C-alpha cells in the first residue's frame, strides 16, 4: 500500500473498525474460554460486558483481567495488519474501547468499578502504544530496490531503457 495523497474512504474506515472490533471480541472470547473454561460452570457475555466481572478480589476476576490485557496485546497485532499506519493506531484503539464502553453501558449500566476503568485504560494504552511501535517498525523497513542488470551488451554502455548499466558483483 502506498501512503501519500489518499482519498478519504469512509467505507474502508468503517470496515476496518468492524473487523478490528470483531477480532477483538473473538480473541477475548477465546482467551476467556482458555483461562475461565475450567473455573466457571457456564461462559456468558457477563465476563465480556459486565463491569462486575473485572475484580481483583478473586481468582476468576484475575483471569478476566489477564484475558483483557492479553487481548490488548493481540489487538496490537491486529492494528499492524488491518490499519498499517502508526499515526492511526491511537484513533482505532480509542474507537474500539469507546464502542466497548457503549456496549458495556447498554449491557450492565455505567461501569462504577475502579478496576474496570484501570484495566480498560491500561488495555487501550497497551494496544495503542504497542500497535504504534509495531507499525513504525514495519514502516521503517528498508525497501528493496533491484539493481539494473543488462540483458545484452550494447556499444554505448546504455541499456534498452537508456539508463547506464551498472556492474553487479
Describe the structure.
The protein is mainly α. It has one domain (10-45, 53-142). Helices cover 60% and strands 0% of the residues. It has five helices and no strands. α3 packs parallel to α5 (114-139). It is elongated. The two termini are 32 Å apart. The model has no long low-confidence stretch (mean pLDDT 87).
Quick synopsis:
The chain is built from 5 helices and no strands.
Termini separation: 32 Å
Low-confidence runs (pLDDT<50, min 5 residues)?
Answer: none
H/E topology pattern = HHHHH
Q: Report helical residue fraction.
A: 55-70%
Computed Rg = 24 Å
Total number of distinct structural domains: 1
Task: List the keywords.
5 helices, 0% strand, 169 residues, mainly alpha, elongated
Task: Outline the fold blueprint.
Elements lengths: L9 H27 L9 H4 L9 H24 L6 H20 L5 H26 L30
Helix pairs in contact: 1-3, 1-4, 3-5, 4-5
Subcellular location: Golgi apparatus membrane
Main location: Golgi
Family: Belongs to the SYS1 family.
